[in-house]
Amino acid sequence: MDPTIAGMDTIVSLFAHPDDEANGLGGTLWLLKDRYRIVLLCLTRGERGLSPGHVEVEPATARLREAEMRASAALLGAEVRFLDRIDGEVFADRAICEQVAGILRELRPVLVFGMWPLDRHPDHAAASEIARKAMRLAAYDGEFWMHEEGIHQTTAFEPDLCVDISRVVEAKNRLIRCHACQNADDRMVLEMEKLNRFRGSKAGCQSAEGFKTAQTMRAGRISILSDLR
To answer: Global pTM?
Structure first.
């Protein structure tokens, strides 16, 4: 379905680096892609992603990871916007929070995906805070769901809701493999399959992605995510 069709509701995902969208919620985005316009807000281009110790900002890495991000977005039929922060230097300062708030006012999404704040990568934690601050500034009143990023990243995460992605596992793997420079020897594919099987075992399905919300759901309100198949 063409994501530019007038009247199609919008879903926004805000994350720190190229590949965060695929690892954390690629299956869920795949299930949503034909029903909603999806806009991916990527705070950085992952400029330090191939530097030993993630020390050096490398323009060639930024170009590579931007191209990988655009390939993933193309599979989803999604729009991607880079917000021009630097990998390893993401902070929830007023300027970026107001920039994201302006985008939320522009797009008026029905659902925002953000990252979980208790994460071993400081950029992920900052991305979570940016999303929450921006929603407050924008007086956003739609759904907000936070995703986990992986076995070795996210901590203290117990889902409020799980989305069954059993039938789109291979599609999610295609998204992860777009980010080839971060997926040596299919490392991230295998890690996310393991995590998603674990979530599925708790949710009564083969494979699932977990989400948490900081909101109190309105009485009688059913989440967009609750009926995804």
So the answer is: 0.93
pLDDT-based confidence at residue 6 (cuts at 50, 70, 90):
low
Residue 222 lies in a domain: no
* Number of domains present in the structure of the chain: 1
Is the residue at 3 inside a domain? no
* Rounded CA separation 119/146 (Å): 12
**Quick one: pLDDT at residue 7?**
65
Rounded-to-integer distance, Cα 114 and Cα 15, Å = 6
Q: How confident is the model at residue 212 (pLDDT cuts 50, 70, 90)?
A: very high
206 within a domain of the structure (yes/no): yes
List the CATH number of the domain containing 76: 3.40.50.10320
